[in-house]
Design goal:
alpha/beta, 136 residues
């Protein structure tokens, strides 16, 4: 809960400089956490909270497919595949750590993730190795 309280304060610090803030919860987000986020940030005009659920890796991947700034907090608390995923995104410059001191009006960019195209290419290559040909 300390990280959540810290995140709420840090987000409040940067809201003045950002266009909007999108928040969504994963299937593993405890209800008490989502209630605190809704209470602390839900009434702000720049905050949009999606009440659907998705997988954490999927949500982050989708955000990183936009080419727009993506910040993460709490990556050091992640384990296994999530830790490796966050580390990979950080090393590639796709995400940056959120400190609460950012001026969100200062934009930065990266080459957007396009995992669908990469996966499709790998499937075509694998099929070609077996003598199959797929029409694009």
């Amino acid at each position: 809960m300390d990280l959540l309280k810290q995140l709420s304060v840090l987000l409040q610090n940067v809201l003045w400089s950002c266009g909007s803030l999108r928040i969504s919860f994963s299937q593993r987000t405890p209800e008490k956490v989502s209630k605190i986020v809704l209470r602390e940030l839900g009434g702000h005009s720049k905050v949009y909270i999606w009440n659907g659920e998705a997988d954490s890796v999927s949500m982050l991947s989708e955000a990183c497919s936009t080419g727009k700034p993506v910040y993460i907090i709490g990556a050091e608390h992640c384990k296994w595949k999530f830790a490796d995923f966050h580390k990979s995104l950080l090393e590639r410059g796709v995400v940056r750590p959120f400190t609460g001191k950012e001026n969100m009006s200062e934009s930065w960019s990266y080459f957007p993730l396009n995992d669908t195209a990469v996966a499709a290419s790998r499937v075509r290559d694998a099929l070609a190795e077996r003598g199959w040909k797929v029409q694009p």
